[in-house]
Specification:
Helix content: 25-40%
Radius of gyration: 21 Å
Strand order of the largest sheet: 2-8-7-6-5-3-4
Largest sheet: 7 strands, mixed
Number of strands: 16
CATH superfamily of the largest domain: Type I PLP-dependent aspartate aminotransferase-like (Major domain)
CATH architecture of the largest domain: 3-Layer(aba) Sandwich
Structural class: alpha/beta
Strand content: 5-15%
Number of domains: 2
Mean pLDDT: 94
Shape: globular
Oligomer: single chain
Distance between the termini: 54 Å
Length: 458
């Protein structure tokens, strides 16, 4: 059989509210050309993020009813802890209300002025929490990952030689942590190979630098290893995940991704002393260590979701659905990240809109056009999200100018995805009518969430 069907049945639905193009033009203008300011009711297909937007299963909803809300020592916490340990084999498990809370705690303790954190590619909140501590986050992406439309199996890998050089330049004592993001979200949802994880671990071990995994999409990355890396075809996703975490000293995770949960996250690690420091900060900011800012029902939902996400029928459908949209766009001549990533389709906005210079944020301009044309909400991952300014206030652009269409798990059907493809193709056919944008107002950190923009008129 060629057709890969959704490995679930729809049990509950919610309506989509339709708007006209004229209405959407007005909505976008009032939102200052920032999709984060658009009301969700005014969005037809919401691909802003796959974080916290998944459809939970009937088992997870049943678990929510079972959730125990005891302040300390809830049985829901122990179910959660057991699920995390079953995958990571890490003894110290600390719940948090979401992934960025885990990052805030970790980098508040390990960061500070003069410190450096090396990564394949840091995502926005990870980098922001590092920089907020006074430290600096540095991306060491492999060469293949820097070329969106040239396929390679593991474009999320870290450049191991660049890591060695970075350690030699900065000094191992100034690098508290090395972080591998799997899959590499900012790099197009591309996977990291097991070989690369082993090689990075070896360099870290030689320099006494702990290795942490940003594990938001660990199951998707594990499935890519099964599909693409020699020696793993006959291993289960869980076995592959166990091996990934065996090379790590700790991990952070937003359970809003590969655990299907609407809220939640965790820190897990082997270092008991570091875990104690993290728990002390957790109590001040999040809550007691057996709930960490979460309700017991959320802990139950995460525990169930962590097991459900490793089902290979689900992962086959998940990866194939992203591939389906990617291939439709490639056939239409649209420049997209190749091969398909694990959770999103990434359009190369620089190639899509060659007439718009990076200083006018082509990715954000494309985001606006996708919304006005078809009510699709997406997000820019380029110079608006990651750009910096030099001493003369001139933009230092990001490595790539991408637009991410993140597909929520178990939410949209094939007809929704076909509609998305049609809208993108329509925008592409009229792309030279799209104008660039300039910034009216911005925040010093994570500006893309609250930035206000206007069209460039000249």
């Amino acid at each position: 059989m060629q057709t890969i069907i959704e490995p679930f049945r729809i049990k509950s639905v919610e309506p989509i509210y339709f708007t006209t193009k004229e209405q959407r033009i007005s909505i976008l203008e009032k939102a200052y050309y920032n999709p984060f300011f658009i009301h969700a009711d005014d969005v037809l297909i919401d691909l802003l993020t796959d974080s916290g937007t998944s459809a939970m299963s009937s088992h997870q909803w049943a678990g929510i009813m079972k959730g125990d809300e005891s302040y300390a020592g809830s049985p829901s916490y122990y179910a959660f802890k057991s699920a995390v340990q079953d995958i990571t084999h890490m003894p110290e498990v600390i719940p948090t209300h979401q992934g960025r809370a885990a990052e805030k705690i970790l980098f508040s303790i390990l960061g500070g002025k003069g410190k450096y954190f090396a990564s394949n590619t840091l995502f926005d909140t990870t980098r922001a929490n590092i920089e907020f501590s006074g430290a600096e986050g540095v991306d060491l992406l492999c060469e293949e990952g820097k070329h969106p439309i040239i396929p390679a199996p593991f474009k999320g890998n870290m450049d191991v030689d660049a890591l060695k050089q970075f350690i030699a330049e900065k000094g191992a004592g100034n690098i508290p942590l090395c972080i591998l993001t799997i899959t590499n979200n900012s790099g197009g949802g591309q996977p990291v190979s097991m070989k690369n994880i082993r090689d990075v671990k070896q360099v870290c071990r030689e320099n006494n630098i702990p290795l942490f995994i940003d594990a938001c999409r660990f199951a998707e990355n594990s499935y890519f290893i099964k599909l693409r890396e020699e020696g793993y075809a006959n291993k289960s996703v869980k076995e592959i995940a166990n091996e990934i975490f065996s090379y790590a000293d700790g991990c952070t995770m937003s359970a809003k991704k590969d655990a299907f949960a609407n809220i939640g996250g965790f820190l897990a690690m082997n270092d008991k002393e570091l875990a104690t420091k993290c728990r002390n900060l957790l109590i001040i900011t999040e809550g007691f260590p057996t709930y960490g800012g979460l309700a017991g029902r959320d802990l139950e939902a995460i525990a169930i979701g962590l097991n459900e996400v490793m089902d290979e029928h689900y992962l086959q459908y998940r990866i194939r659905s992203i591939e389906y949209l990617t291939n439709k766009l490639i056939e239409a001549g649209i420049p997209v990240m190749q091969p398909a990533g694990g959770h999103a389709v990434y359009i190369d906005a620089k190639e899509f809109l060659p007439h718009i210079p990076v200083e006018q944020y082509p990715g954000q301009a494309l985001v606006g056009s996708l919304y006005t044309e078809g009510g699709i909400r997406s997000v820019e991952i380029g110079s608006l999200m990651f750009g910096k300014y030099d001493d003369n206030k001139k933009l230092i652009p990001a490595q790539m100018e991408l637009v991410r269409l993140a597909i929520p798990r178990r939410v949209y059907t094939q007809s929704h995805i076909d509609y998305v493809a049609e809208v993108i193709i329509e925008v592409f056919n009229n792309r030279y009518n799209i104008k660039g944008l300039s910034i009216i107002e911005e925040a010093p950190i994570l500006r893309h969430f609250t930035v206000k923009l206007k069209p460039v008129t000249e």
